[in-house]
Hints:
The protein is an alpha/beta fold.
Amino acid sequence: MMKYLLVILLLVGCKGDVKNKQESTKTNSPKIQSGVSLVVLGTAQDGGSPHIGCKKECCKELWNKPDKTRKVVSLGIVDYENDKRFIFEASPDFTSQAANLNEWADKENDLMPDGILITHAHIGHYTGLMFLGREAKGAKKVPVYAMPKMTEFLSSNGPWDQLVKLKNIKLQELEINQENILSPNVNVTPLQVPHRDEYSETVGFVISGKQKSALFIPDIDKWEKWDEDIIDWVAKVDFAFLDATFYDANEINNRDISEIPHPFVIESMELFKDLSKEEKAKIHFIHLNHTNPLWDMESEAYKLVLESGFRVAEFGQKVDL
Length: 321
């Protein structure tokens, strides 16, 4: 009898140890957070995944079994010391992304971020602002940081101008290469990049925290078209979240690739091939088109990226700034 009792006690003890170990390794528990954290809230290109009208294998299973982690590109910043939250891009998935950011910050779900920063006027980057209007949240003066043309676009075109008129949002105009203090621990600087600027200019952001910094460029035509050196910028920051819309030209066989220029991942890897191991590890590829093989962690493309020393941004990923 004593033998069986000892076995039961041992099993109960082991189960308790496993539970404690799981709880102690939770990285998103607000109780153990401090300083400034950057959280990846979305990694997909504007059209999302699955993509409208897509019948390819990359989307086929997702129509019946949606992947809740496949959200349109967005980053979140939490300044725990100053109780501030900021979100980069107002994507079509803004509703869930704002809630996710609040989870990281241990805030109520209905609270709006302390600021929204927009890179440009393409649908994956600003249309989530619609949820702040009278048909949805009916928000009050949520600060929206944008460049001059983007600010003018939102102020002069419906339905976005209604957000301004009803004071759902409060536009904060940015200046190129000018640092903006969002909180005592968070500064951002917009960098203008070449892209299809039909309605606004396009920028990336340097996001500086208490100790580290990150570069966020989800959209650019080609690295060589930029009057800045991306390699120099990677050297200046601790993390770089860079445009990886297409892995290569083979993905798009039904559209003119010249109409949607982006640096292919294979081009970026070639450009960065001579960087040190430490510099390569800074680079996180983001803004993946639904056709991009980097969605599949078992693909040869994904394995090659990691073997080459680079990384692929993941939903829920957190880095400390």
